[in-house]
Amino acid sequence: MKEKHIFEMNLRTLRFVAVALSFSLLFFSCSHGRRSSSRSSGGEKTTEVVGTDNEEELSDVRNTRTSYHPLDLKFYLERSGSMIGFDANSSKGEFKETVADLLNRFPIKEENDSNALFIVNNNVYPFEGTIRNFISERDLFAATKDIGDPSFTDFYKIFEMIMANEEQYSVSVLISDLIYSVKGQEEVNPQKLMNEAKALTGNIFKNHSSGGVWVIKFIADYGGKYYPYNSPSRGIEYMGDRPYYAMIFTSKIGVETLCNDPKYANFYHFSTLPGYQDMFFFTSEKFKPEYSVIQRGFGKKGEFRKEKGEKGAIHSLQNVHMTRDELSIPVAVNLSSVPMSEAYKKDLSNYEIISQSGFEIVKIESLKDTEDKTVYESCPGATHIILLNTDEDIKNETIYINLKYKFPRWITQSSTNDDSDINEANFNRTTFAFESMMQGIYNAYTANNPSLLLFSLPININTK
Question: Quick one: what percent of the chain has pLDDT higher than 70?
Answer without folding.
Answer: 80
